[in-house]
Amino acid sequence: MYQFDSLFAALSGLGIANGILFGLYLLRRGQGEARTTNRYLGYFMLLLSLRFAITTLSYFYRSPEWYVVDVGLVLNLALGPCFLAYTYSIFRTPVPVLFWIKQLFPAIGLGVVALLARTVLPLGTFFEPFKNGWFMVNQVTLLHWILYLVYAFRWSKLILAEKKAQGFNVQKIQEGLWGLLLFMGILILGYSFNNAKVLCVIFCPLFYTIIVYLILAYFIKNYTSLQKAYAWEKGKPSAIKTEQIAQLKVQLQRLMEEEQCFRDSELSLDKLAQQLGSSTHTLSHYINTYEGCNFPDWLNRFRVEYACQLLHDPQLAQLKIAALAYESGFNTLSVFNGAFKKVVGCTPSEFRRMGTDQVFF
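Given the sequence above, the corresponding structure tokens read:
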């Protein structure tokens, strides 16, 4: 082994060892729902560390046992479902055990096929590293991993938006989840160039070492806030003083009725709180308690009321309903139709034909 190979192997081994220790640490940390989430992340870190340990053994030490290489391919198929399980656990999404068994069928199936190819069928060379057969199988397993990451990203993005609208602080969870997804994407990109030994052998294990230390630093720095976020507890809302209630009411009336800030399609609870010079928690508590609804419904009431005025404006009679929806602050026509019927009791088209100004909010 060359001198530089020894150095790269040592650095890679350092990251792998820390990844394993971190995974074992997560398996025993946290309470309640936070402990479940930590445990799934621990499983993922252990599997990921094992995957890179196999890479180090396979290419730095030149002559690994054949089953070591095969386990690496099987792990590629297991890492996607494992990361998805971690993502589901963050948002307390219950999934039947049978579902996870089905997700692991490809990994189990590949393991059986590889074992038969090595011991029964004359296909041993097909699974040798840097051979065309092994390379094609490896690319398929990486694609399988990518599909799980893409699904986890799209699904969690929707759930995070819902949680944020409900008043939860999702910043730490979003940072951690997006960071892991980015790191996994870069690692998979490196592994996809298995015939380029510099990328696969040196880049991936060394980058994994960097990733482990970045994850450790982030987890240690944000441990307390992450555990609270995993529990999804809003906490007891603090009472708003009488003078604050009156002040918020006046400020909101000015922003919504005079400045018509509801026409901003990007208006969010955070953005409105910043304009008021208030905290998101205080504004959310005021709307829920004193307006009797959540923020999206409260905001849509203003937008629908404004849309009603536009629908009965003779000068706008030639404009399509979609144009009036966008003018009122809605992003899509479907959302506008749903909100309009919820507030008014009929569709925008029916309301326009009615020709009445009697709207009940």
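The two ends are 78 Å apart (CA to CA). Try to locate this feature in the token string yourself.
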